[in-house]
Amino acid sequence: MPPLPHYPTVDELGARAAALVARHPRDARLRRVGASRAGIPLWLLSVGHGSRQALVVAGPHANEPVGGATVLRLAERALAEPRLTEGADATWNLLLCLDPDGLRRNERWLTGPYTLGHHFRNFFRPGFLEQPEWLPDGAAAAALPETRALLALQDELRPFLQCSLHGVDVGGGFVELTRDLPGLDRRVAGIAARLGVPRELGAYDALYWPGLGPAVYRIPPPHRRDLAAAITEAAVESTWFHPHRHGTVTAVVEAPMWGVAAVGDGSPHAGVEAELRSVSRTLRQDTRLLAGLTARIRPYLTGVPDAARLLAPVDDYLLVCPGLADAWDPDCGNDSAHPLPPMTTARLAALRLSGRRLALRTAGLLHQLVTRAGHDPAGALPELDRLIDARCADFREVSGARWIAVARQAEYQARVVLAAFELAGRGTFRSGEPGWGPDTVVPMHRE
C-alpha cells in the first residue's frame, strides 16, 4: 500500500495493519494486547519469528501522531528485508498507538491543512497524570489501562530494545536513551542531513540531562518529585525504565513537524541575558493573560463535553509556567541546584520555542472549550485568537519554522529506529530470552 500523505487516524492504523497481515500471513500477526479507557483496542503488529524482541511504541503522546506512520513504514521494511528479522533472529513488535483515545481527539487536524494556527486550535494532549508512559506512583499502582497493557507487554517480551516514538511540534529531532548506544549520534547526524531535518543540539526536554553526543541525551534515573518538577523535568518513574530489569535499552525518538534551523546551532550567543529576560517576560505575560482568561471561562463550562479533560492540561501548564519563567530569568537568582547550562544559540532557541509552545497549547485548549460551549459570555475568543495568531507568527517569522512533510518525518524516525536497532543488537544487553546473545549484527536500512 502506498504511504499515506497525512498522519494516520486510529481507524487507518488498524485497517492498514490488518491489510498488511492479510498480504503476509506467515510473517505478520496482529493481536489485541489491551484496550483504552474508552474501549478502543490496543493493537500489536508483530513481524518476524526471531527470539530477540524489539518493541516499538507509537502514539504515547496524543498530539504526536508521526509514530503511527513510522510503525507502518517499519513493518513494511521488516517484511521486505529479511536481514531485519531472520538475519537478526529478531521479531519486531509494533504497538500501533498507546493512546488511541487521545489520538481521536486530535483528528480535527491530523489530515491537514498543516498550518500552525489550525494545529494549535485543534490540538489535544491530556494532563500529565493521564499520559500512559508515566508511572507517578510506580508500576504496581499504574492506574491507566493503557499503561498496564504496556507494562504487561514489556514483561512478556523482555525486549532488548524499546523505541518510544515521539514528535516535536516546532523544533528539531533528537534521541533520549536510558543507556548509551555509542555511535548513535553520528547515525542521527547522517540521517538528519540526508533528509533535511534539523537536530536539536540543546533540546528543552533534556536541558538538565547529560549529553551522549550531539542531539543524543541520557535520561536520568527516575526519582520522586513534586508534580511541577515531574512535568518539567520528566525524570520520574516511567515505562521507559520499567523494562530496564530485562536488560532493555529504551530510545525515545523525537521527530519534528515544523523544523527550526536555529535549534541546530551550537555556537555561543552574544546576548544571552537579554534573550533570557525576553523569553521569561513573554512567558509571564502570556501566563497572566491565560490565567485570567481561564478564570473567566471556567464558570461557563458546566455541561460542556470533555471540559474536565481539556482543563486538566490547562491547569498543568498554568502550574508550571511561572516557575519556568523564574528559572530562565537571570534576574531571579536561579536555583543553584538547577543552574541553567551554558546557553548556546541552540539552547536559547529551544527555550524560546518552549515558552511560546506552552502559551499556544494553553490558548488552543481554552479556544476549544469556548467553541464547544457554543457561546462566549466571557468574551474570551477574540483575545485567544490574537494570542494564537501572534505566537504562530513568531514561530514562522522570528524562529523560521518550516513544515516537514509527514512522509519525511516518518522516514527520519524510522531510520533512527533502525540505527538504534543495529547498535543495540551489537551490545551486551540481555533481553531475558534464553540463549540471547550479541552474535548477529543487523545493518541499518540502506539510505
Query: What's the order of the H and E elements?
Result: HEEEHEHHHHEEHEEHEHHHHEH
What's the CATH topology label of the largest domain?
A: Aminopeptidase
Biggest sheet features: 10 strands, mixed
- Spans of at least 5 consecutive residues whose pLDDT stays below 50 are 428-447
Mass-distribution shape: globular
What structural category characterises the helix and strand content? alpha/beta
Q: Helical percent range?
A: 40-55%
Q: What Rg is obtained from the alpha carbons, in whole angstroms?
A: 21 Å
How many beta strands in the DSSP annotation? 10
Number of helices: 13
Word description of this protein:
With 447 residues, the protein is of the alpha/beta class. It folds into two domains: 10-260 and 404-426, Aminopeptidase (3-Layer(aba) Sandwich); 272-400, no CATH class. Helix content is 43%, strand content 14%. It contains 13 helices and ten strands. The protein has helices spanning 10-23, 66-80, 100-105, 107-110, 116-122, 145-157, 184-195, 227-233, 272-297, 307-328, 345-373, 381-398, 406-426; strands at 28-35, 41-47, 52-57, 90-95, 161-171, 174-177, 211-213, 216-218, 249-259, 402-403. α9 (272-297) packs antiparallel against α10 (307-328). It is globular, with a radius of gyration of 21 Å. It starts with 9 loop residues before the first helix and ends in a 21-residue tail after the last helix.
